[in-house]
Design a protein that fits this description.
There is one protein chain. With 194 residues, this protein is an alpha/beta fold. The chain has helices at residues 36-42, 84-88, 103-112, 145-156, 159-179; strands at residues 19-25, 46-51, 69-73, 80-81, 94-100, 120-123. It has a 6-stranded parallel beta sheet with strand order 2-1-5-3-6-4. The radius of gyration is 17 Å and the shape is globular.
């Protein structure tokens, strides 16, 4: 973003017992449409790991040695719903691993990254469709990484934390749309010459 469109002043500082571990594919790291890094800026108890680098394979086995419950956000068959019943069945604090990247990249992460193969897989409850229409979604239930994280932390922390994150996401969406010549709903802004 240009300086006049910077949203840094709007980023809340959210501290939760749950921890975010964002696993981003190396091809996504520098994309301006990647939303995961904004969640890292808001959630104090978070970390970024890059995978897909040749000669530097990612291994997250250490996550299981921290006395925490490691779960992977993975919307697929066999994934358990992330809800209060799931959270309450185990007293350990949760480390939520969120694969970031396109759908194909994200589906490979739990299968290929040591430490995630045997981690519990969870999926989000149904909600409103994505507001991030900058990148095309191939699946109706597809969300921007940030939106998925916000919904997950609504369960892992509180609805208030989800609201803070979603407010920040709305600011990002509107600012990004405006920078690209769209109104707040993603429609092209017509100039007076049109």
């Amino acid at each position: 973003m240009h300086v006049d469109r910077c949203i840094c002043a709007h980023i809340p500082r959210i501290v939760t017992e749950a921890r975010l571990c964002l696993v981003m594919h190396c091809r996504e790291e520098r994309k301006t449409t990647a939303t995961g890094p904004l969640a890292l800026a808001a959630l104090e108890n978070s970390e970024l790991h890059i995978h897909g680098l040749p000669h530097r394979p990612l291994d997250l086995s250490h996550l299981h040695k921290q006395g925490r419950r490691v779960v992977v956000l993975f919307p697929s068959k066999g994934a358990l719903p992330l809800d209060r019943a799931f959270v309450d069945e185990d007293p350990r604090p949760i480390t939520l691993v969120v694969p970031d990247g396109n759908w194909r990249q994200a589906t490979r992460v739990p299968k290929r990254v040591p430490g995630l193969i045997d981690a519990e897989k969870v999926t989000l409850p149904a909600g409103h469709p994505t507001r991030w229409r900058i990148r095309r979604e191939t699946r109706d239930e597809g969300l921007a990484t940030f939106e998925a994280i916000a919904r997950a932390f609504g369960v892992l922390a509180s609805p208030r934390e989800q609201e803070k994150l979603e407010t920040l996401f709305d600011i990002m969406v509107h600012t990004t749309f405006a920078a690209r010549g769209y109104d707040k709903d993603g429609n092209p802004i017509r100039s007076s010459r049109d």
